[in-house]
């Protein structure tokens, strides 16, 4: 009885193994014999091998040159803006120069330019000074005060600035920065604000001027040894540095550290993504099965086939191609498993089943012996 039951258990295990193996072999044979081709032919997937010809035909990346209108701009002599505080000195007339007292700070004795650009000074009346240079205002005051004073000696200084450059986004300090008589450059503004290097998208800086947006790739500028100091800022400019939380690629499958990787720069190559994920798992990965899946969501919305790029990474030379293949936000990099890995996983799933059958056979044998 014992021999019969154990033989039956062995036959059951053999049948289960054979069924799974045949199913697996049939599945493998189906894909090897062209099921993948049928999927491609059906229009669901557009499979593109990563080859030197593909990389040579890829469109060149946009040049990182700065817009000419930004580079060509040079600030003129400082022009007075609403919100500025002006200190007017009339020599030998302290009652006009320091009405708050000589011991007070210069800002206290200064006079504010109102939001409409008007400015009041005794004996000169209201003046529209917005847009004037300091020299032009001085000449205007001399002309007005000459009616009441003999040969007035007048000096004008800006002691408080209402002109601002605003900053938003992935900066450590987003405090508005003053535009003073000393021209402010883009690099100076960024240096003072300090970029949050962990969260910033360095390729996406937007400078808004006079209602127009200019996109500036800070990463490309640094790689091309260009300098943001070439750009002078104007009063009213706005700098926005986006976060990189929506700029990710996903590396999954047989790599050492599957993860989502954020872009901090303008681009990321396939080799960089694999490197940050620890590389291909030397035990479980199949080097011939490295794929980049692109545009799944957009393809579904537009009812178009998604593009899947295939890299045969079985040889070291293939990583030269991977280094030249640029990823895009939203790409999924998938590394397939080697055949032995699939076999080991199959066994790990089968062993609990064989143990269950063996336990069942033993239980039947013990129950039969009790009956005898």
Automatic annotation (TrEMBL):
Residue span, SLBB domain: 165-239, 247-335
Signal peptide annotation: 1-32
Top-rank lineage group of the source organism: Bacteria
Localization of this protein: Cell outer membrane
Any one of the GO CC terms: pore complex
InterPro entries, per database record: Poly_export, Poly_export_N, SLBB_dom
GO molecular function: polysaccharide transmembrane transporter activity; porin activity
Any GO BP: monoatomic ion transport
UniProt keyword terms in alphabetical order: Cell outer membrane, Ion transport, Lipoprotein, Membrane, Palmitate, Polysaccharide transport, Porin, Signal, Sugar transport, Transmembrane, Transmembrane beta strand, Transport
Domain Polysaccharide export protein N-terminal: 75-158
Membrane topology, record value: Multi-pass membrane protein
PROSITE patterns assigned: PROKAR_LIPOPROTEIN
Family from the record: Belongs to the BexD/CtrA/VexA family.
Protein's name in the database: Polysaccharide export outer membrane protein
Organism from which the protein derives: Vulcaniibacterium tengchongense
């Amino acid at each position: 009885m014992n021999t019969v039951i154990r033989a039956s258990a062995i036959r059951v295990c053999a049948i289960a193994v054979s069924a799974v193996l045949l199913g697996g072999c049939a599945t493998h044979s189906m894909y090897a014999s062209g099921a993948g081709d049928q999927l491609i032919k059906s229009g669901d997937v557009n499979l593109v091998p990563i080859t030197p010809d593909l990389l040579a035909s890829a469109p060149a990346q946009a040049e990182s040159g700065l817009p000419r209108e930004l580079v060509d701009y040079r600030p003129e002599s400082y022009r007075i803006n609403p919100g500025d505080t002006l200190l007017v000195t009339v020599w030998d007339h302290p009652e006009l120069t320091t009405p708050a007292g000589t011991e007070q700070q210069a800002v206290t004795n200064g006079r504010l330019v109102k939001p409409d650009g008007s400015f009041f000074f005794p004996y000169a009346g209201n003046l529209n000074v917005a847009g004037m240079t300091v020299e032009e205002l001085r000449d205007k005051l001399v002309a007005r005060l000459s009616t009441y004073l003999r040969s007035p000696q007048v000096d004008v200084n800006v002691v408080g600035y209402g002109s601002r450059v605003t900053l938003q986004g992935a900066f450590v300090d987003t405090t508005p920065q003053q535009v003073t008589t000393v021209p402010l450059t883009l690099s100076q503004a960024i240096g003072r604000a300090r970029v949050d290097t962990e969260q910033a998208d360095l390729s996406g800086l937007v400078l808004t001027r006079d209602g127009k947006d200019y996109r500036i790739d800070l990463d490309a500028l640094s790689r091309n040894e260009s300098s943001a100091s070439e750009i002078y800022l104007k009063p009213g400019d706005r700098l926005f540095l986006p976060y990189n939380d929506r700029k990710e690629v996903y590396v999954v499958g047989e790599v050492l550290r599957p993860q989502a990787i954020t872009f901090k720069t303008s681009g990321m190559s396939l080799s960089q993504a694999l490197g940050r994920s620890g590389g291909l798992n030397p035990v479980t990965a199949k080097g011939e099965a490295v794929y980049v899946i692109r545009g799944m969501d957009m393809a579904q919305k537009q009812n178009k086939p998604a593009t899947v790029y295939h890299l045969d990474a079985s040889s070291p030379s293939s990583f030269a191609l991977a280094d030249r293949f640029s990823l895009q936000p939203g790409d999924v990099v998938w590394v397939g498993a080697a055949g032995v890995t699939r076999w080991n996983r199959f066994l790990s799933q089968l062993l609990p089943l064989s143990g269950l059958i063996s336990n069942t056979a033993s239980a039947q044998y013990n129950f039969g012996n009790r009956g005898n």
